[in-house]
TrEMBL record:
Residues 1-20 are annotated as: Disordered. It comes from Chitinophaga horti. Transmembrane segments: none annotated. This is HEAT repeat domain-containing protein. Pfam families: HEAT_2. InterPro entries: ARM-like (IPR011989), ARM-type_fold (IPR016024). Signal peptide: none annotated.
Length: 200
């Protein structure tokens, strides 16, 4: 599983020295301890918005979970991805179906790497076949992040799911053998097949 150090943003150096008298969170100075309306975090520079939303999860501010769930519905992919990462950091398991809906939506096909990454800390074995599909047909970032989930769950899937996943990989390998630069793609698919066959 990934850890928080692998998230795309970390608190700025020296943030922990922020004065508690100001009412600010010691590690996340832009998150006030008395904050009630988390939509205030959507004001200001886009990068600060993203950092603030991720910071909610890293600071463990569970009161913000409803706000973060609502934010998954935004059309702004940067904020949506940050909300998914924040919910993941707090282990909000009930967010998995909504995150998977986003991952599988055709409009997000080229921009779902961070959403898949957010699932690394959540239980989502029921979507194993979908992860195999992404490993076969996703872009580079999506494939990498989905492969992590395939590796994570490969010892726990049922025989039927294993057979289905192997059939998907083998079908994609047959197609890949007819394409340009086939050697690299075929080697990758054979590697994933080997992972699923080595389960004892």
């Amino acid at each position: 599983m990934g850890n928080s150090s692998r998230l795309p943003w970390r608190p700025p150096a020296g943030a922990a020295a922020t004065s508690a008298r100001s009412g600010e969170n010691a590690s996340y100075p832009y998150l006030r301890c008395d904050m009630k309306d988390y939509s205030q975090l959507l004001n200001g520079h886009p990068e600060l918005q993203r950092k603030s939303i991720i910071g909610l999860g890293e600071a463990g501010i569970t009161e913000a979970i409803p706000f973060l769930k609502d934010l998954l519905r935004t059309q702004n992919s940067r904020l949506r991805d940050a909300a998914a990462l924040s919910l993941s950091e707090m282990g909000v398991q009930e967010a998995v179906p909504a995150i998977m809906d986003l991952i599988l939506h055709p409009d997000n096909e080229g921009n779902r790497g961070s959403l898949i990454f957010s699932l690394w800390k959540l239980e989502c074995i029921d979507y194993f076949q979908e992860f195999v599909n992404i490993v076969c047909y996703g872009n580079y970032e999506s494939r990498h992040n989905a492969l992590e989930l395939v590796q994570q769950y490969r010892y726990r899937i049922s025989p039927d799911v294993r057979r289905s996943a192997l059939a998907t990989l083998q079908g994609k390998r047959v197609l890949a053998e007819t394409e340009d630069d086939a050697e690299r793609e075929v080697a990758f698919l054979e590697y994933v097949e080997a992972l699923l066959m080595d389960f004892e």
